Amino acid sequence: MKQLLKQIFSTFQYHTRLLLSIAALVLATQFVMAPAHATGVYQMPSLSAGERTWVLDEDDAISRLNEGRISSALEKLADQTGKEVRFVTIHRLDYGETIESFTDKLFEKWFPTSEAQANQALLVLDTVTNTAAIRTGDKVKTVLSDEIAQSVASETLLVPLQQGNKYNQAFLDAGDRLVAVLSGQPDPGAPVVVDTTNVESTFKKAEETNTGNATIVVVVLLIAATVIPMVTYFFYQGFS
Prior knowledge:
Number of domains: 2
Distance between the termini: 9 Å
Structural class: alpha/beta
Radius of gyration: 27 Å
Strand content: 5-15%
Largest sheet: 4 strands, mixed
Shape: elongated
CATH architecture of the largest domain: Roll
């Protein structure tokens, strides 16, 4: 009997080490893989003034149909006014980067001189945090004030996201407002926010869910790795 219990105890020790290894691997994978999806300015494709690329949807947040509608409206705006607006979506910022710093760097990468920047407007959204920033050139500022530009980035674009991650509506609304103002029409203004009793979503983002699951797995494995040897030890002592 003692020999059998020793074999059982040895087997449990082996599986304990195995569980701890798996726990460490799961935890390490979560921390290593997350930054791998981050987007840096150096990863963005090159683009310059005059190019007919208006939407760069790196996170596939906008449907093909709506991307086409937005692109058509922005291209028509460029042909009629010379003002060029571009929308960009990214999934996760590099460590230490903010949406404002990323937008500034991308704006300066694409349009490195004051002449190239003059007629440009760039609106960038990070879909992980749902934060946005806008950067405009000097000639755009004469028509689109900084106040309206910031309202587009912080209200027109973000309100539909706060109401259920409605990315298509967000960019369609932002495009309509920018086109109107840059075409010399009256500013339609920011969207009206309707207050409700249950505005906050009860659903977690995929990143939060994945991290939570990994943490639960690690905790369960660590508890099992601690409790099983103790139970086995006392069981073994009872027969010795």
